[in-house]
Amino acid sequence: MLAEISKRMGVWNGNDYVSVAPGDIQTNKHVYVITHGWGRGMKDEMQRDPNAKAWEVYSDSDLDNGVPKPNTKPWGAWMKDMAASIRQVDPNAEVLAFSWLDHSATGDGVYAGDSQRESVWAGYRLGNLLKTVLPTGSTNDLRLMGASHGARVASEAAVSLKESGKKVSRLTFFDSPENGFAKNWFVEGKNDLDRNVLKQLLATNSGQGIGNGEGQTFVENYYSIFGQESVTDGVVNVRLQGTAEANNDAPWVGYPKLHGYPYEWFTRSASADSEFGLRWDIGGAPIFPFWKQDWLRTITLPPDPTSPTNTRWVQDDTRELDLVMDVQEGATQETTRTPAMVIYNREGSVAGSTPQAMLRLDEGNVLAPQTNATEAGSLLSGESLAPTSVPGSPAFVDLLMTTQTGDSYLTFDYEFVSAGDGDELGIWINDELRFVINGFDAPVGMQSESIDI
Fold first, then answer.
1. Residue 36 CA from chain centroid, whole number
2. What is the DSSP secondary structure assignment for residue 363, as one 8-state letter?
3. H or E element in which residue 425 lies
4. What pLDDT, in 10s, does the model give residues 260-269?
5. Is 64 helix (H, G, I), strand (E, B) or coil?
6. Nearest-10 crossing angle of helices 199-207, 150-163
7. How many Å apart are CA 117 and CA 437, to the nearest integer?
């Protein structure tokens, strides 16, 4: 067990993570534990040095003859930045980091199933290592944090620790892969925390295990591109927009940036200007369960025939750390919502494919400008929805609809008549991606799907 602690754990000394052993952690202190997620593209690096920790190892692309290139950082450098921010807010805290990169590292492909399965093992391992490192009879207040698949690691450890009598006052997720979009980008890699872990955590403390009160665990879920709102009672959900740069980038460039943004935002929330994130009052008054970031807006640029779109995101830096209550999340069916359907192509062109789509909103009225569909159950013509096929043109089509009392789900039919490279169909509801499929994965012929609204 001591060898495993040395291999996988480090304690922050104010400048870096150093080795930790049983007896090093003082009792009665807040103990923060940070863990990473899927190590996509890091397989070769970890095969060369299986004992390298996530916050020490560099990606091969950042090395020149084994020497780090200028202005590069270790793969898990964000774990050091977060430790420094935690100490800024909680100066007497102990901050630990946990590495399982030798189990989560894969090649460059999109198959994430191995990492996801290993995250369960890693969660049990982290729980056991903490029980060994912490003082006997410890009353330490534990605060576990995990990014991506690390959210599964942290939550599995939290359940194990609480069931053994330890105090886990905080559990933090950074873009845990949960939504339909994650199904394509994290093949077989969804954490599915609501079903797999959070119901177990909720069952602790006589069925009141999640919350901000005595004996409860404050669970906060920060999500951006692959995460989504948790449906487990008591979880505080924070929808983050990411940076303008990441939103303007091509998907294969921007999505990884958006995926990492929640832990970067959380690290910056240590600022004295913030009252959220690291500045939440843990153990204080109840906290509203739905929040969102609102620092981006779109601008329309002058026409440019070489650009696939004339719309760009811009950000107001003074508002990055501000959150506003997201009153539409968790709303009743009587609340107005505005679903939208988007057909898009990564290259900004639909040349070579003619996606057709039909939308139907059951048990309610459909309000669809520029279509003839105005009654319940009406079909929106695929022809009227099809984006232009001029190469280089924007391939976006938005339809705004208002639900009525009793509306329960959105059903839609779609077909990729001739799928080309990068063709995808995405359904956004209230700015949240709820369904996505690429043309090559879609079955042949017209397909039907539905989304619970």
1. 13
2. T
3. strand 423-429
4. 999 999 999 9
5. strand
6. 20
7. 23
Tokens of 313: 């995101």
Kind plus residue range of the DSSP H or E element containing 167: strand 167-174
Q: How far is it, in rounded angstroms, from Cα 8 to Cα 5? A: 5
Give residue 368's pLDDT. 31
Give the predicted TM-score (pTM) of the model.
0.74
Question: DSSP letter at 196?
Answer: I
Q: Is 49 exposed, middle or buried (0-12, 13-18, 19+ CB in 10 A)?
A: exposed
Residue linked to tokens 């560099």: 58
d(CA 183, CA 435): 9
Encoded tokens for 346: 């990564």
Look at residues 295, 304, 340 and name the one whose alpha carbon lies nearest to residue 453.
Answer: 340
Phi, psi of 95 (to 5 degrees): -120, 120
Least confident of 58-67, 130-139, 148-157, 425-434: 425-434
The span from the CA of 160 to the CA of 53, in Å, is 24
Span of 102-111, 300-309, 392-401 with lowest mean pLDDT: 392-401
Closest CA to 226 of 332, 75, 126, 110: 110
